[in-house]
Amino acid sequence: MPGHLFRRLHQQGVALYGVHAAGFDLTPVQFAALNAIATWPDSDQSSIGRSIACDKATVGAVLDRLQGKGLVERVADAADRRTWRLRATPDGLRLLERIAPKVEAVQRDLLAPLDEAEARQLMALLARLVGPMPVPGAAR
């Protein structure tokens, strides 16, 4: 069944992340959030949550942890004081630079059993199944 295989592949990815990113004190979801914030600075919490496929409560807790580690900051929106804009701190950006090669190694290891054409085909099929990735700030 595809769901079982997807879950197994996800488990393998998390395990590989644990091996490659050991010592960084950053979970895969925290990495995804920090990377999204660095990619789309000044996005709001809901947009970041959608971009990494996390519900509102989960992304809130992840952002609290990242802020507690000094990796992101929340800045009040000038036009709407109820909205917080997210930015990676200099420490967050430095951590992303250091961990990026480790995350790339995880991706390579996950796809290692496939040749280059198979890896491209798998990625295209997965992207088709998942659908377009929401981009913070883009019109819905």
Molecular structure report:
This protein has 140 residues and is mainly α. The chain has six helices and three strands; from the N terminus they run ααβααββαα. A three-stranded antiparallel β-sheet has the order 1-3-2. The protein is globular, with a radius of gyration of 16 Å. The relative contact order is 0.15.
Number of alpha- plus pi-helical segments: 6
| Main sheet: strands, sense, barrel | 3 strands, antiparallel
The secondary-structure element order is HHEHHEEHH
User: What proportion strand?
Assistant: 5-15%
Q: What's the short version?
A:
63% of the residues lie in helices and 9% in strands.
Fold blueprint:
Blueprint: H1 2-20, H2 28-39, E1 43-44, H3 45-51, H4 56-68, E2 72-76, E3 84-88, H5 90-111, H6 116-130
Antiparallel strand pairs: 1-3, 2-3
Helix pairs in contact: 1-5, 2-4, 3-4
Keywords:
3 strands; 140 residues; globular; 3-stranded antiparallel beta sheet; mainly alpha; 6 helices
